[in-house]
Design goal:
Elements lengths: L5 H5 L3 H27 L5 H30 L7 H27 L9 H35 L2
Helix pairs in contact: 2-3, 2-5, 3-4, 4-5
């Protein structure tokens, strides 16, 4: 029984990731469907939205890993910045690269009513609308949780 949770102890983020990633992909596909309908007037089938969401997520992971490796590889030998600054630089560069490359994927894969790709510009709008919707929902959930906490703590 001692070794039952050995993997969870060695990788404390493994279990939450194994639960959160599939949930994020499922919810993200529904959000992509909604946003694509708002922005482009295109109703994506859920399976296609899930596939596009998966591709964009994988591209984001590859971009982040590549940028992180590049910043670490080129920044560390120079000894000019601390590891915290390298991490922040990698995150910011990954964010910028993701917002430049992922709309290209979305814009080339999502088709309008005439069967043509929606294009890079609409891909950017779709990606920003997804991010904005996520921020609004996150703030709303945060406010709701704070309200519940305040009510429960006053009892």
């Amino acid at each position: 029984m001692e070794n039952t949770f050995l993997l969870a102890q060695a990788h404390p983020n493994l279990l939450p990731s194994l639960i959160g990633i599939p949930i994020g992909l499922v919810v993200g596909a529904a959000v992509l469907q909604l946003v694509t309908k708002w922005v482009c007037g295109v109703k994506l089938p859920y399976g296609m939205a899930f596939l596009y969401n998966l591709l964009v997520s994988l591209a984001s992971i590859v971009i982040s890993a590549g940028v992180g490796f590049g910043v670490g590889y080129f920044g560390t030998p120079l000894n000019m910045v601390s590891s915290d600054e390298l991490g922040t630089t990698a995150i910011l560069l990954s964010l910028v690269a993701t917002f430049l490359i992922c709309p290209l994927i979305l814009g080339s894969l999502i088709r309008n009513q005439r069967g043509k790709p929606i294009g890079y510009g609409n891909g950017i709008v779709v990606l920003f609308a997804q991010a904005l919707l996520g921020i609004v929902v996150g703030i709303g959930l945060g406010i709701a949780l704070i309200a519940v906490y305040v009510v429960l703590s006053s009892l």
